[in-house]
Amino acid sequence: MVLITGAAGRIGSTLRSALSQYRLRLTDRDLSDCEPKPNEEILEADLADFAAMRQAVEGCDAVVHLGGNPSPSATWWDLKGPNVDGLYNVFEASRQAGVRRLVFASTNHVTGMLDERGEWPVGAQGPIAPDSLYGVTKALGEAMGRYYSENSDLSVVCLRIGWFTGEHQLLDNEGWLRMWLSVPDLGRLINASLTADVRFGIYYGVSANTPMRYDMEKARTELGYEPIDDSSKLLADRTDG
């Protein structure tokens, strides 16, 4: 069983088909528009409610933690419940339930100031430089992942996800093109993260874009993630068409 938090969000709702080989438990605050498939069950829950999170992770082998406030302009008080308290709840509940693997959706905003200064390529082993309080909460999540991986049986993969727009959407903007993640590559990334033989790691999650903003070698060698799609090629094909 794999738990997906934030299952009603853009990434969560898209990811379901890519993980169809698993039994899935979908959780979010509001799943009224979610029609579960035969391999899915739904559980409405608030990340800030520890008891609810403890119930959600029970019996799960893995957790894909996508839930939280995704706004780079959010205030600390808007972020604290879902991105700080909720973050701890998911990690601690997973530890208590004996979850094997937690895949944490971090963000490119953890190193957003490096992007602002054009310090490319950005590697996952370099310094953090958040460009927002949202990025700060995601950096906290990476630190929490390392803590739990070293002090419990929980293994943790942190993914600094790039620009995910969903199906058939691509913006003609050089910055976004460098950090784009396609729908098929999202599936490849999460599937690799669920099965890779790693104890802890931080990786960038983007497609095989040219030019490339991030150093993807670590994701390739440690996760076995092989992205296929290229934003520039897709954009050129659409322009030629």
User: What's the end-to-end separation, in Å?
Assistant: 43 Å
Number of helices: 9
Q: Strand arrangement, largest sheet? A: 3-2-1-4-5-6-7
Q: Supply Rg.
A: 17 Å
Domain module count: 1
**Share of helical residues:** 40-55%
Uncertain spans: none
User: How would you characterize the largest beta sheet?
Assistant: 7 strands, parallel
CATH class wording: Alpha Beta
- Tell me the number of strands: 7
Instruction: Report the principal-axis shape.
Output: globular
Tell me the CATH architecture.
3-Layer(aba) Sandwich
Question: What percentage of amino acids are in beta strands?
Answer: 15-25%
Structural class by sheet pairing and helices: alpha/beta
Instruction: Assign the CATH superfamily.
Output: NAD(P)-binding Rossmann-like Domain
Average predicted local confidence, pLDDT:
92
Task: Please provide the ordered H/E string of secondary-structure elements.
Answer: EHEEHEHEHHEHHEHH
- The name CATH uses for the topology is Rossmann fold
Describe the 3D structure.
The chain is α/β, with parallel strands linked by helices and 241 residues long. The protein has a single domain, classed as 3-Layer(aba) Sandwich (Rossmann fold), CATH 3.40.50.720. 41% of the residues lie in helices and 16% in strands. The chain is globular and about 45 Å long. The termini are far apart.
